[in-house]
Design a protein that fits this description.
- The chain has about 220 residues and is mainly α.
- It is about 55% helix and about 5% strand.
- It contains nine helices and four strands.
- The protein has helices at about 10-15, 30-40, 55-60, 80-90, 105-130, 140-165, 175-190, 200-210, 215; strands at about 20, 45, 70, 75-80.
- A four-stranded mixed β-sheet has the order 2-1-3-4, with helices on one face.
């Protein structure tokens, strides 16, 4: 499966690969899907198209040009990482699924994933505001609000993961672990000056543990 990573679209067709994941791994949404595919043991090819640099090529696959995009083996085009992952969980072996089936664990998993996705969203908003909007048009009160939301999401996640060190739902990484780890690494990568690992030791430890696994190392952020 690792050998199928970063294939061109032509290579995918030649090799008859079942699924294609479209998007760059510096997107936390693309990366969480790539890592999850490996943990679910679902063969796929990664086609690293940028929504900025490769807009036309991306639009030829998905006119909405939204990353991640997943092309299924029947040609169906799926978008939105959460909806993609819900679909993949249904395709995988029950023993490998990444969402707990137990009611209380399921609810807690959804809470953690929601907080991590909120942190991703706020990180992206700050990056776009800083990098894409001219300095004279940036609105500092809005940036302050978004930064406060980002800090709140990670403070809540830190409390949750400090209370239960290690993987949250058993002996292997589940989706809450994956998404939280991916989110934290993304924020540290794009906003290194904003949140310190020293103030979030549980999240830093989770990230270090996750990044050392084969699934994470096969889908590096950079």
């Amino acid at each position: 499966m690792a050998q199928e990573n970063r294939l061109s679209q032509t290579d995918c067709k030649k090799r008859g690969t079942t699924m294609r994941l479209i998007g760059m791994l510096d997107s936390p949404y693309v990366r969480r899907v790539a890592i999850s595919l490996r943990l679910l043991d679902l063969p796929f090819a990664h086609v690293p198209l940028s929504v900025f640099r490769d807009f036309d090529a991306f639009a030829a696959i998905n006119p909405v040009v939204k990353a991640p995009t997943l092309v299924m083996d029947d040609g169906s085009v799926l978008l939105d990482s959460t909806l993609i992952l819900d679909t993949l969980d249904r395709l995988a072996s029950p023993a490998l699924r990444l969402t707990p089936q137990d009611g209380p664990d399921f609810v807690r998993s959804q809470r953690l994933i929601g907080l991590a996705l909120a942190a991703c969203e706020k990180s992206v908003q700050i990056v776009y505001e800083r990098n894409l909007r001219p300095a004279e048009k940036q609105h500092q009160p809005w940036l302050d609000r978004v930064e406060g939301q980002l800090r709140a999401a990670y403070a809540l996640l830190e409390t949750e993961f400090a209370a239960t060190p290690g993987w949250q739902f058993g002996p292997r990484a589940m989706q809450a672990d994956v998404t939280t780890s991916v989110s934290w690494r993304f924020t540290q990568f794009v906003l290194p000056d904003l949140l310190s690992a020293a103030d979030h030791p549980a999240l830093a430890a989770l990230s270090e543990r996750a990044e050392a696994t084969a699934a994470f190392q096969a889908s590096p952020i950079a």
